[in-house]
Amino acid sequence: MKVRVLVRPKSGILDPQGEAVRRALPALGFEGVDSVHIGRLIEMELESADEVEGMCRRLLANPTVEEYEWEVLS
User: Fold this and answer.
1) Where are the alpha helices (DSSP H) in 1-74?
2) For residues 30 and 9, what is the distance between their CA atoms, to the nearest angstrom?
3) pLDDT per position as a tens digit, 34-67
């Protein structure tokens, strides 16, 4: 089965990459963007999704500053 994990900074956590993108957008003609958060997408092929939550908590995300969500794709 395929599993997709989305990891992103928690609300209120400094996101320098997101802030750089937010500042650059008006220069490219894209107005009205108040905030940007840059995260990462992890896709895995697994035999079972039983341990995905543990993988997220212990390795894939830093629960102090990041939040995550995951879904089974197939």
Assistant:
1) 16-24, 52-55
2) 23
3) 999 999 999 999 999 999 999 999 999 999 999 9
Q: Are 4 and 71 in contact (CB under 8 A)?
A: yes
61: amino acid identity, one letter: A
User: What is the C-alpha to C-alpha distance for residues 72 and 51, in angstroms, rounded to an integer?
Assistant: 12
Interacting residues of 64 by C-beta distance below 8 A, sequence separation 6+: none
Does 74 have pLDDT greater than 90?
no
Q: pTM to 2 decimals?
A: 0.82
Q: What torsion, rounded to 10 degrees, do the Cα atoms 58, 5, 22, 65 define?
A: -20
3 state SS of 62 = coil
**Per-residue model confidence (pLDDT) at position 24:** 97
Comparing CA positions, the residue from 35, 39, 30, 43 lying closest to residue 1 is 43
